[in-house]
Design goal:
The structure holds three protein chains of three kinds. Chain A is 38% helix and 26% strand. By secondary structure, chain A is an alpha/beta fold. A six-stranded mixed sheet of chain A has the order 6-7-8-3-9-10, sandwiched between helices. A six-stranded mixed sheet of chain A has the order 20-21-22-17-23-24, with helices on both faces. A four-stranded antiparallel sheet of chain A has the order 2-1-4-5, covered by helices on one side. In chain A, strand 9 (208-213) and strand 10 form a beta hairpin. In chain A, helix 3 (98-108) packs parallel to helix 5, helix 4 packs antiparallel against helix 5 and helix 14 packs parallel to helix 16. Chain A starts with a strand and ends with a helix. Chain B is an alpha/beta fold. The two termini of chain B are 29 Å apart. In chain C, helix 2 packs antiparallel against helix 8 (186-217), helix 11 (268-290) packs antiparallel against helix 14 (336-350) and helix 14 (336-350) packs antiparallel against helix 15. In chain C, strand 1 (50-56), helix 3 and strand 2 form a beta-alpha-beta unit. A four-stranded mixed sheet of chain C has the order 2-1-3-4, with helices on both faces. Chain C is of the alpha/beta class. The chains are: A alpha/beta, B alpha/beta, C alpha/beta. At the A-B interface, helix 13 and helix 14 of A face helix 1 and helix 8 of B.
Chain lengths: 647, 381, 385
């Protein structure tokens, strides 16, 4: 195999901050190579440097044998390159139609008119955009924008495709379609692709990948290799009394996560036998069942970071437990604190929210999931009383949102995607400001101030400006500010976007404690499907409607009944394997890097059939796994069935 | 309005001031505008005739003709010398090398001595009207002066007072600025223009920054009314700009340009505060219709130009075309200019300006309420 | 080095974007027209209709005759009589009137006796330029009246003929010819002169925003990552803004002719060429600014201040270049505005053509080339951040 891209000890700094340090990697031609990591990992910097649009000081980058060290040498490879920068559709021209956008990119790249015609037709067809050719780009959905971006990047048949976070913020179905389209084109045209993502669950889509954090590579290789290299275990415990077990588990294990009715514990240094012994002691008289579960990249990422940064100490939320206990007792945990009844919101002719109903009880974490533009924020805006609904009703903490929005505002905490902090103010100034806005003063303000510093582990940073805090700390500060007046209801609008997995995990641990110890009702929106697992119950929104509404466990169980389990096979020639299976009547065969994946009610028997079929064609199977359907599978199923109902 | 209400206002005002002080560029820009810009305004463009280049065609070459030409002197005129002929004169005027050319006919002196009227031709480049007007007026005055001297010498009297001839002596008293220093007018007027620009822009910028960052959402979800959100911003802008005005006055206008401050300081600051209040209402309006800082700037400039130009800052109301007259009454700056100059140069007190002050307050309140209303409405979209 | 097809593609896309963005598009055309009209009508230097009152302590036929000279003048706007000087103080203080004519009690008696009488003129000195104009007009009217007085007195007492008296009283009369603007209408010169200010600011700002907008959204990466050359990009970006600005400057010239009723005496072909080079140089300034800044706010601010200040202060619009300080003269020559002002005033008011102004055209073209190449040199497809 030929080398398409070679990066040798690459480094780049912006003024004082080091963006990337000492990164080396090699991309073979024909492979889909992934850069995976949270915001600020240096993915974009690396991709821009490879694309020849960013100058750099350290290291060497060679693309198709051309060393990129000047504007002139960069220009020489640009003909063979397709680059899509970060931000959904941001490199497209909103006022131009799909057709005009494509033509512009084609003309820019000097695509001959006769080639352009057939190429455009083909790409539009693959993307499913043929019937929207004259629609202005700004009127497209997120998924369509993403596909159009890909079409524009591909119009001149580049040999190397560089896509910066192409799947961020799109719905699960569009995400799946995107990967299918990409796989098809890479296969047919023999392209090489370098793709970045912040979603750890996309790791299996790549042939090989580099896991990055704060400008450094944590590990490299195939996803399987990375997982195999890291010793460790993961146990999932199903329990109805998970909140009671938590303290003991937290004392016994490094990594404990509460996911609704499930607790996930993990360990890397600790031997699994010792773990089983400790677990047995904690669960001694219980009826809980537990099982080992495969370790994901997210756990490995966290483990690798834990070796570097100090683990934040576990703490209690209540400085004065007894007084809060009383409050907790006085509120019946079955109290409904948020209720939406057939909420509708129209903007001119467009219905952003269409008959949305759900309720959230005290002590519950409720997830509102969906892609960007699905209507999540609009629901929150209506419930918090800043946007009047076009129809339906809503109640928050016992107040009707139509009539007493001021009382609602006093009893809720709110934190939005951008972490509405004043970045030019210091941590303390931010806390005091929000405290005073919510009417605190004197001793009470001082107490709450301390409390916020404590839950955010921000004691050392009180005089740092909020803008210079890392994202994770900024997020905890914003959460603290939202909680300064001890609200019973908490609205969190995309609270984790841009935060690394460690920060996210820490954040969720605080949320679980808030719900558990203080009986706060929490409504959280997110487009990270992995986070859905943390919620007690959730509602999935698609185009303004709720298409799924239940607990994660039930949702998965229902899907398992409907479609069975997931059969995942690692094969030697995945593209070929996929088409063989499809032509032999297997439906929904998906490609995940070097694996093919399909649903089956009887995975064991089907697995044998498939293995025989593939072996017959000379395809080697190196690994077979039978997996439970994930929430992402559930969402894809739900969204598609809602589409088919409409059609 | 409870203590809690005020406490919230106080906390938010303090926040605005803190934020302003942390924005180094904004602080420096504000400092510059109130000092440097006012200084340049006072020094820079002047509506005075200084060293206007003049040429002459002296066809007489006599003592009288030279004497006449000598009347046109510095600092108004700069006599460049003899121009050979009509063609050269035309060329020099066309090229803008001369502002005017004087043509003294042959027999000038003889005619004078013989008591025959004669005339001097004066070609004047009037493409710049201010200079044209001034040059015309000064040459006219010089000629009148020369005529009078001539007449007196003919009548053999040394001073007009000895003469038993009926004549009217117009004694001119230039009030408020006896030496006609245009730097007084320009520096004060620049200070007011700067204040207008900043009161509009700062208010809008502070608001739109919250919009851009998304913090406005946090505020609107907090138990605050739109008025409670806006008032602290207006208060902060007031404090910043009133300090700016004080800086302008006490660092530039008074010490550098020696403008005598005739009126009461407190009254001037009160009037300024009311003016800032009016303009900040417009600022809120701008912030509501703009998405980002760039739009704020463009809209501010589009709005500030008519406000400044229709105010009488450059052109007094009476010189405006008929149809513009009623519009002037709508420009908050018109009242501010009137009152401001009145207080600073004329020493006007409250009894003289209360009507203007009330009008300004009324206009301000309409703008402010309109701003609040729009601001409130934008969340419903 | 430049592929015309690529330039066309870039320019066409830019044009489509401007055209589709109705707000931006209308701003592009409304902004100059509004600026032109407001400034044109607002910046009037005509000194007419100065409001004044008369305090006539004499109240005689003579005093009324004298007053009439003022009340009938088009320069003054008679607002009535006041009984005492005291009464007028408030009026001047409130800026309701700009000057007060005070005729003392013994005015008519002194004149009848053949003595010198004094009148007093209290002039509001706030607007210095206007105060000096009032003072000039006043002296002229007074002088005129004096001449009349003396003429009749001399004819009565010395038996001279009217002609002889005239020769003695004003032996030299001044015959002023107002060149280029024979009615001394300020709107002719400011109206036409404003074209250079407006069409400096607006193309620069539009073009600067156009490029920075792409930087902000990230679509500039399409250019960075493509094979488009720097010259192609800059030229493609520039063309639509030159086109729009050329339409604008043509509209403004028509406004000057129709609304401000300025004459056009020069050569049209010269103006058409000069306009093109001028707006191209202004737009190129905008593109040049955009290579330095990252945000739209900074682009708007810098392109506006960077063009407005030289446009007003160092173009000759407000103050002729001759009366500027040495540094200001240098600055004036280093900017296209001054040359275009000479062309505009030359073509509209002075009736000049190619023979007089060809060099200015050459300089303007030089500015286009200069700013264009600077922008190309400054623009990099491989950036630092």
């Amino acid at each position: 195999m030929q080398t398409a891209v070679e990066v040798k000890s690459f480094g780049k700094r912006f003024k004082k901050t080091i963006a990337v340090e000492d990164v080396s990697l090699t991309i073979q031609s024909g492979e889909i190579y992934g850069l995976i990591g949270p915001d600020g990992a240096g993915k974009s910097t690396l991709m821009q440097a490879v694309s020849g649009v960013l100058r750099f000081e350290k290291g060497e980058i060679t693309v198709f044998g051309e060393k990129i060290d000047s504007e002139a040498s960069a220009n020489r490879i640009k003909r063979q390159l397709g680059f899509m920068p970060q931000g959904l559709g941001l490199n497209l021209y909103p006022d131009l139609s799909i057709d005009e956008n494509i033509d512009f990119f084609a003309n820019l790249r000097g695509v001959a008119p006769e080639i352009l015609h057939t190429r455009k037709a083909k790409l539009l067809d693959v993307a499913g955009l043929s019937s929207f050719k004259n629609r202005a780009m700004k009127n497209l959905s997120g998924g369509m924008k993403q596909k159009l971006g890909l079409v524009c990047t591909l119009i001149h048949q580049p040999r190397l495709l560089i896509l910066d976070e192409p799947t961020t913020g799109v719905d699960p179905v569009s995400r799946r379609d995107f990967w299918e389209m990409l796989n098809q084109l890479v296969r047919e045209e023999g392209m090489t692709a370098l793709i970045s993502t912040a979603y750890m669950d996309e790791a299996s889509r790549f042939n090989r990948l580099s896991m990055m954090h704060q400008g450094k590579v944590l590990d490299q290789g195939t996803a399987d290799e990375i997982i195999r290299r890291t010793p460790g275990w993961l146990i999932e415990i199903e329990s109805a009394r998970s909140r009671e077990l938590l303290p003991a588990l937290n004392d016994a294990f490094e990594h404990v996560e509460e996911l609704g009715d499930m607790i996930r514990i993990g360990g890397f240094a600790l031997q699994s036998a010792e773990a089983e012994r400790r677990l047995g002691m904690i669960l001694q008289d219980g009826t809980e069942s537990w099982s080992y579960s495969p370790i994901g990249l997210e756990e490995i990422f966290i483990q690798k970071l834990d070796n570097r940064s100090q683990n934040t100490p576990q703490m209690r939320l209540t400085e004065n437990r007894s007084s809060h206990r009383k409050e907790a007792v006085s509120t019946d945990s079955q109290d409904t604190l948020i209720r939406a009844e057939d909420l509708v919101r129209r903007f001119d002719s467009f219905t952003a929210v269409d008959q949305v109903s759900f309720d959230v009880r005290a002590g519950e974490i409720f997830g509102l999931l969906g892609a960007n533009g699905a209507g999540k924020s609009t629901v929150i805006k209506m419930l918090t009383g800043i946007l009047p609904p076009s129809g339906g009703a809503g109640f928050v903490a016992g107040h009707n949102m139509a009539t007493s929005s001021m009382s609602i505002k006093e009893s809720i905490g709110y934190m939005s995607q951008a972490f509405s902090l004043y970045l030019d103010l210091t941590v303390s100034e931010n806390i005091d400001l929000f405290g005073r806005i919510y009417g605190l003063s004197g001793k009470r303000l001082k107490e709450r101030h301390q409390w916020v510093l404590q839950i955010g582990h921000l004691q050392k940073e009180c005089n740092t400006s909020a803008g210079s805090l890392p994202m994770g700390k900024r997020q905890r500060l914003a959460l603290g500010c939202a909680l300064i007046h001890q609200p019973k209801v908490l609205f969190l609008d995309e609270p984790t976007s841009g935060v690394d997995p460690i920060g996210r995990r820490e954040f969720w641990r605080i949320l679980v404690q808030l719900a558990g110890e203080l009986q706060v009702a929490i409504l959280v929106t997110t487009h990270y499907m992995l986070e859905a697992e943390h919620c007690n119950r959730l509602a999935l929104m698609q185009a303004g409607k709720v298409v799924a509404y239940d607990s994660p466990k039930n949702l998965k169980a229902t899907l398992k009944q409907q479609k069975g389990q997931v059969l995942s096979l690692k094969v030697s020639r995945p593209y070929q394997a996929q088409s063989i299976l499809e032509s032999n009547g297997y439906s929904e065969v998906a490609l995940y890097g070097s694996r093919v994946r399909l649903f089956s009610q009887e995975p064991e028997t089907v697995g044998k059939d498939v293995a025989a079929l593939l072996a017959d064609k000379g395809i080697e199977i190196t690994d077979v796994m039978i997996l439970q359907p994930s929430l992402e599978d559930v969402f894809i199923e739900k969204i598609e069935s809602s589409h088919s109902r409409e059609a | 309005m409870s203590i809690l209400w005020w406490r919230r206002i106080f906390a938010l005002t303090q926040k605005e001031l803190l934020q302003f002080s942390r924005d180094l560029i904004l602080v420096l820009a504000t400092l510059y505008f109130f000092t440097g810009e006012v200084f340049i305004g006072g020094k820079g463009v002047s509506f005075d005739l200084i060293n206007a280049p003049m040429g002459y065609m002296d066809h007489d070459q006599s003592l009288s003709s030279r004497e006449w030409l000598n009347k046109l002197r510095q600092p108004y005129f700069d006599m460049k010398g003899q121009v050979t002929d009509e063609k050269q004169a035309q060329y020099l005027l066309d090229e803008g090398l001369l502002l005017g050319v004087l043509d003294i006919p042959e027999n000038f002196e003889r005619n004078l001595l013989n008591g025959v009227s004669t005339s001097i031709g004066f070609q004047l480049d009037a493409s710049n009207v201010i200079l044209g007007n001034l040059a015309d007026s000064y040459v006219g005055l010089a000629n009148a002066h020369s005529n009078q001297e001539w007449m007196l010498s003919r009548l053999k009297v040394v001073s007009p007072d000895q003469m038993q001839v009926p004549a009217i002596e117009a004694r001119q008293i230039i009030l408020y600025n006896p030496d006609g220093k245009s730097s007084w007018f320009m520096s004060i007027s620049e200070m007011m223009t700067v204040l207008s620009m900043l009161s509009l822009f700062l208010t809008a910028a502070i608001l739109v920054k919250e919009k851009e960052r998304g913090t406005i959402e946090q505020l609107s979800i907090a138990p605050l009314t739109p008025f409670q959100i806006l008032l602290p911003k207006i208060l902060a802008v007031q404090m910043i700009l009133l300090s700016g005005i004080a800086m302008s006055l006490f660092l530039i206008v008074i010490p550098v340009f020696e403008v005598p401050f005739q009126g009461e300081y407190w009254l001037f600051f009160l009037v300024s505060a009311v003016y800032i209040y009016a303009m900040s209402g417009l600022g809120i309006f701008i912030a509501t219709i703009s998405k980002n800082l760039a739009q704020v700037m463009i809209v501010s400039i589009l709005l500030i130009m008519p406000i400044v130009l229709l105010s009488g800052a450059f052109t007094p109301p009476e010189a405006m075309p008929e149809w513009e007259q009623p519009l002037i009454q709508l420009s908050p700056l018109y009242y501010y200019i009137n009152m401001g100059f009145g207080i600073i140069l004329k020493g006007n007190d409250l009894s003289l300006i209360w009507q203007d002050l009330l009008s300004l307050f009324a206009i301000g309140s309409v703008l402010f309420l309109f701003g609040i209303w729009l601001f409130h409405r934008q969340f419903e979209r | 080095m430049m592929n015309l097809h690529t330039v066309k593609t870039l320019a066409y896309k830019e044009w489509l974007e401007i055209w589709r963005d109705r707000v931006y598009f209308s701003m592009a055309f409304i902004f100059p027209v509004v600026m032109m009209l407001v400034l044109g009508f607002g910046l009037s230097f005509d000194v007419e209709k100065m409001p004044f009152v008369i305090v006539d302590y004499d109240n005689s036929d003579e005093s009324r005759e004298y007053s009439y000279k003022f009340t009938s003048s088009r320069y003054f706007d008679y607002k009535g009589h006041a009984r005492s000087t005291k009464e007028t103080e408030t009026l001047v203080a409130k800026a309701d009137i700009r000057f007060v004519l005070v005729i003392p009690p013994e005015f008519s008696q002194k004149i009848k006796r053949g003595q010198r009488a004094q009148i007093q003129a209290l002039i509001d000195g706030m607007f210095t330029y206007r105060a000096s104009m009032v003072s000039g007009y006043l002296a002229a009217i007074n002088g005129h009246y004096n001449a009349q007085l003396m003429r009749s007195w001399a004819m009565k007492n010395s038996g001279m003929t009217e002609h002889e008296v005239q020769a003695m009283l004003s032996p030299v009369s001044l015959e002023t010819r107002y060149l280029y603007n024979n009615e001394l209408k300020s709107i002719w010169s400011t109206g036409t002169g404003l074209i250079i200010l407006v069409m400096l600011v607006s193309p620069a700002m539009l073009a600067a925003l156009g490029v920075v907008r792409e930087k902000e959204t990230g679509s500039i990466f399409n250019i960075y990552a493509s094979t488009v050359s720097r010259a192609e990009f800059i030229t493609g970006k520039l063309l639509p803004y030159v086109l729009i600005s050329y339409i604008n400057i043509s509209i403004l010239c028509l406004l000057a002719l129709w609304i401000f009723e300025a004459p056009f005496k020069g050569e049209l072909s010269l103006l058409l060429v000069a306009n093109l080079f001028y707006v191209a140089s202004a737009a190129a300034i905008g593109i040049l600014v955009s290579t330095f800044v990252k945000s739209q706010a900074a682009a708007a601010l810098i392109s506006m201040l960077g063009t407005m200040i030289p446009g007003i202060m160092y173009s000759g619009l407000m103050m002729p270049v001759e009366s500027m300080s040495a540094e200001a003269v240098v600055e004036a020559h280093a900017f296209p505005a001054m040359y275009q002002l000479e062309i505009i005033w030359g073509a509209f008011l002075k009736g000049q053509g190619w023979s007089e102004l060809w060099f200015n055209i050459l300089i303007l073209f030089g500015f286009v080339l200069l700013f264009w190449s600077l922008a190309i040199l400054r623009f990099h497809k491989r950036v630092d951040e």
